[in-house]
């Protein structure tokens, strides 16, 4: 019997070691590095690890995080990836996908809040950041309109149309009708190019000019048409195309 007690005392440290898997210390160090150095102190895959910790508490998630980066290219592209494509990643369940989508939604709300704080034209970088956050990594074209009042403050932000990978139908009169309903005096048009290249097409330019032609007689100004993609953005006004 005394021998059995001694054996149990020796076994306890082994049990403690088993209770704290090898990745426990890694997780703690990663959290501390984030708190001390901010997001600049961690890599993209490490940010994904931090997101996945909550949904997958009993497994080393570093291989999974690296798989996400390998498939999608970056942290931003991973959290913005369509749910159907995320489900193709082995080991990524719905709980983990939900965590990624919470982060995506939070990023969008933060960027949207920045655009509401000041007039759009005086906080143009915030507008661009919001547009890129909202749809630069979408897999289908989306046509969005930011409706502004006479002080150029945001009244509403609406996705008017969602199309295919390379086309979204846009109807100028419907755009202007909605602006009138909201008593907007100016609008900013936004759409994405899922290809990643934000260079405006001839159709983009023609459609924008058609909206300008319908809006102008009604006292509605088209401040810009911004095209976003994962490779950057293009401003039709900046390119002197409107």
Number of helices: 10
Q: Going across the major beta sheet, what is the strand order?
A: 2-1-3-4-5
Total E-strand runs: 5
Q: What is the CATH architecture term of the largest domain?
A: 3-Layer(aba) Sandwich
CATH class of the largest domain: Alpha Beta
Instruction: Indicate the low-confidence ranges by residue numbers.
Output: 5-18
Strand content: 5-15%
Shape descriptor: elongated
Which secondary-structure class do the elements indicate?
alpha+beta
CATH superfamily of the largest domain: Cytidine Deaminase, domain 2
Q: What kind of oligomer do you see?
A: single chain
> What is the CA-atom radius of gyration, in angstroms?
24 Å
Largest β-sheet summary: 5 strands, mixed
CATH topology title of the largest domain: Cytidine Deaminase, domain 2
User: Kindly state the mean pLDDT as a whole number?
Assistant: 84
**Domain module tally:** 2
Proportion of helical residues: 40-55%
Measure the end-to-end span: 91 Å
Along the chain, the helix and strand elements come as: HHHHHHHHEEHEHEE
Characterise this structure.
It is a single chain. Helices cover about 50% and strands about 15% of the residues. It folds into 2 domains: about 15-105; about 125-235, Cytidine Deaminase, domain 2, CATH 3.40.140.10. A hairpin with a 2-residue loop joins strand 4 and strand 5. The protein is of the alpha+beta class. It has a 5-stranded mixed beta sheet, sandwiched between helices.
